[in-house]
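Lecture 7 notes: from sequence to structure.
We start with the chain below.
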Amino acid sequence: MARAFFRLQKFLRRTQFLLFFLTAAYLMAGSLLLLQRTRLVLQQGSRGTAASQAVPEAAGRVGMADARMPQNAHPAARPLVGTAALQEPALGPRWLVSRNSELWQLRRRWFHRFISDQEPMQTAGLKAMRRTAEHKGTYVGCFSDDSRERTLKGAVFYDLRKMTVSHCQEACAERAYSYAGLAYGAECYCGNMLPATAAAPEECNSECKGEKGSVCGGVNRLSVYRVEELRAGARRGRNVIYRGCFRAPENLTDTFPASLIQPNLTVEMCSEFCSKKEFPLAVIRGRECHCGFPTARFPLRDGADGQLCRGTGTHCRVYQTPVQDTRCTDRKFLTTKSKVFVALSSFPGAGNTWARHLIEHATGIYTGSYYFDGALYNKGFKGEKDHWRSRRTICVKTHESGKTEIEMFDSAILLIRNPYKSLMAEFNRKYAGHLGYATDRNWQSKEWPDFVNSYASWWASHVLDWLKYGKRLLVVHYEDLKQSLIPKLKEMVEFLNVTVTEDRLLCVENNRDGNFKRSGAKQKDFEPFTQEMKDLINRYILTVDEALRGRNFTGLPREYVPR
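Predicted structure tokens for the same chain:
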């Protein structure tokens, strides 16, 4: 018996068996922990995320680990602002510390709302798209698509969830294009020339993401439609925008690739001519019509009095056609991992999405995100689905603060916006998405005072934490970026260690708003802030301004000054 036991003991001591045993035990323990963690997350989700409902501390720790649901994001289960960070005289007065316990709960709720808000809006949009899924164009055929020699390059749109044939056709028709092509089930291309190489019909086999049973191209294949006229009575000239009166370059023919001389020339005639040639600018001087792009020779920066544009003198009238400037629309992921991990940090509502649009189009490289916003991914921000630590993107969007979260990054662009405007922008996003406006009922509800009371302190603590823990910072004020786009964008691109051409920056300026300018009925001029709210926000403004100057940064712009 003793001999048999000795043999068994010797067998168990063998290296291979012991390694196998430990591995199996490790996997079993990990599975049990994962199941327990999933159960806690589901329990937390069932309790809801209403504003009036506090998030329990234990559930908060687990829920934040999965805030970026499709990706394994780094857990952020710590308060937004550490008490020590706010007790330092250089960074903030003692009264700011009292809000610390509320901030981490606020951020938990914000993340849950951020994720849960996406699905209802996308579902509603999908239903609306299906109601208008009636095809208006004439199907031409299936064609090969070469990204390097693409003929349908006048405008490019993405919708990786709701793309339909009708949606693509209408988008191209509104911009005065003759053809609409769809690829990969989600990409829409517009142009006035058919692709050169036809493909077999069966090679266009990708189902439209937003319309079951319809074909939207394939892999390197385009389903091409001839776009019919818009509704009866609609005029293409409605999308032509007057840019102003500018001094004409010395040689118009050398500056602009296409020209037309026409007696009794009208804006509509010139715009349609330039649109068919796929140019975003229509330039009129007397009976001369010229088409082209903004360039270093014609940058559209110093406007003149409109009276100078009458006749055939030294000035000309400039109009923006419906055609998109595509010199800066190509984007890609980095082919090798970036050595520097850069954050694009801001408080929610401070223009982070707009800044990402500018950076992507200026550099030609996708930006990443600490979170996953399906609505942004669907609109072409492909870095949303890339893991935030992949280092394949030029920088990573984040609203995080706190020592651990900040010190993960080697450097950061810190985007700051007037808290009054930021709070209103985030409130609009909360109730109407990225492009809508909250209703009067929302503003008059008790949600708004609670929102201001909680989020205003977050605005201040976000800046203070990045000033304290950030290793290398470029502070950019949203208002300065909006007013002086090219100079500020140059600073940002140089900070990211990327070289871009002047023409590419001018292209970005020509497409400065992208697809993320709020639409619909704009809010009437009104004052949503009570005097009590103003007093609270103004104290935070003074604190942040003092902290910026203490770190030798430019203080807050004049318009931030307490009103």
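Points to note: Residues 37-92, 117-133, 231-237 have pLDDT under 50 and may be disordered. Residues 317 and 457 are 48 Å apart (CA to CA).
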